[in-house]
Hints:
five-stranded mixed β-sheet; 29% strand; alpha/beta
Amino acid sequence: MSHLLRSHAPITDAGWEQIDEEARERLTAALAGRRLVDFSGPRGWRYSATNLGRTKPLPSAPCPGVNARVRRVLPLAEVRADFSLSREELRDGDRGAPDVDFAPLDNAARQLAIAENRAVFHGWPEAEMVGITQASPHAPVPRTAEFNDYPRPVAKAVELLLGAGISGPYGLALGPDDYTGVIETAEHGGYPLFDHLGQILGGGPIVWAPGVQGAVVLSLRGGDFLFESGQDLAVGYDHHDGDAVHLYLEETFSFRPATPEAAVALVPA
């Protein structure tokens, strides 16, 4: 039996298909980190730690004449967002209703995506994760409030990466405010800012990244930023009553920067 206990829920197979599809649609758009860093896994619910390939010396061994070291690992963090769906709405979905109210699921998916993005880009000290912007040795590049000027700081970030020997193509993760400003802006002469930024990045993606502060330019050459998934995002069952089914979205993961100099943060001036 799966630890998600889905077989205990008063939800039909068709209902689970709708729930899974709704979660997939909401999460795919919002999980910015996964689109820009190396993803490995999923390795399953029982997988508990990422091997760092390093050791730490121990002050003593069980007997004289023996040296001892302990292997270092990065524990996977468990992240869960609870939500409830109306049993009446689920029954309407089984009848073929095209407008089932999945708002609680949508909100849980967004919050979980924000949590994952923040851990990847800005770190999560309590879970021993160092984020991309925390690890980068480059000073953040300031941007002005004028989005027509946005190519300048992005080009500066790319120049810093090239100067550090970091090849492209490059990706751009835009926090919600920066993303809105970019897509609403056309440069002088009507040239779409989005297209200009794409050329500066060498054809790399520009990604909406809820949970990210400002923006981040990073290399997509591979091997620089490592995300390891244990239990990939999935919907599980908690309990139900006469009115609602109480569910949750859950995942386990770790993140570590292998080449910190492969990213540059953009921040408001």
